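Ticket opened by: R.M.
Priority: normal
Category: complex prediction / small molecule

The reporter submitted a protein together with S-adenosylmethionine and asked that the result be attached to this ticket for the collaborator who will pick it up next week. Submitted input follows.
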Amino acid sequence: MALSFYVHIPYCIKRCGYCDFNTYTPNELQDGATLEIVSSDYIDAVLSELEAAPTDQVPTIFFGGGTPSLLPADDLGRVIVAIKLRNGISPDCEITLEANPDSVTAQKLAQYVEVGFNRISFGMQSAKPHVLAVLDRTHNPENVEKAVTMARAAGFTSISVDLIYGTPGESLDDWRETVSTALALDIDHMSAYALIVETGTKLAAQIKRGDLVMPDDDLMADMYLLVDQLCMRAGLDWYELSNWSKLGHECRHNIAYWENKNWWGLGPGAHSHVDGKRFWNVKHPTAYKQKLFAGQSPVADSEVLTAGQIGLEAILLGIRMRGGLDIELLEPYQIELLATFRGDGFVELSDNRALLTPTGRLIADRIVREITI
Ligand SMILES: C[S@@+](CC[C@H](N)C(=O)[O-])C[C@H]1O[C@@H](n2cnc3c(N)ncnc32)[C@H](O)[C@@H]1O
Ligand code: SF4
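Result attached by the on-call engineer:
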């Protein structure tokens, strides 16, 4: 079987107000180290963890974070070389870098391509300065166009941007401008996620105090339908609820997750899935490094998926994909429940597969809940 790799880079210059990802700013690091010092040492720990992984050939590698583009290409390249030497990579291996538009230069991008990256995903979020301000983002929206142009010139063959919709104070027209601005760039792929208010974040505190108000569900639905229409018109088709791409530019790494393939997550807090077993690492980079440098496993805990869990996940993940859900996975009573959604125009049946219509995609979670209780 193939084995995909996720490589977690748990560092950011500054934490965005809405984000609860497992990432640390230089100030938050207990060892007080700067990113330059941290980088090489951190990669040593990652390479040591790699020794425990299976040796199957690798179809995709994804460097996520955090902000992987903060680290020099040479450091990230050490991981790519080690995986190549140890496992071998497929000839068309997709190697993605998550990047902040502010943290790249033409020279740095060329170096990333040189060490093997071929796909890049920029955290654009919004084209509107007032929305970026509420999101507490550091980047200047004009840097996104520069970054995409430089990435293309450097030789990246697949370019994606991440957007967020439903930020307090964002109107439908603001969102239209953001999506149109993104689509006017030379991109192959777009992810658009509804803003989630994560407990413990600065955003959650602002909402609790009443300083910010989240948009209502109708506006969120209109925003989703708008991004879908604009993407389709620009030749980017949806292939998963929150993802659109030109044909052939679907993110194969994420598809491997959604199809429950085998993947290994390197780094603190990273999760892995190998043959029905899930396990995850200790969360803090310092604890992670200490374990590995002491010759110990960084795994914090694990679980073996039951047949019931595997079946439920197949429904949950399958229905989110353009290819739809194989009806064979369902019990007769579940097919009957699905038929009621079909009558309401939320689901279509084709070749023994249940496919969500655009309005069905708005209520995907409800459909799954109702057919799985
Ligand atoms: C690890 S970040 C991408 C790389 C880089 N750190 C950045 O933000 O530019 C992955 C993506 O997760 C999304 N994200 C993070 N927190 C979110 C939240 N609370 N709600 C919705 N999307 C979120 C953002 O769109 C972000 O671009
Ligand atoms: S959204 Fe990205 S840049 Fe902002 S704190 Fe989270 S991981 Fe870092």
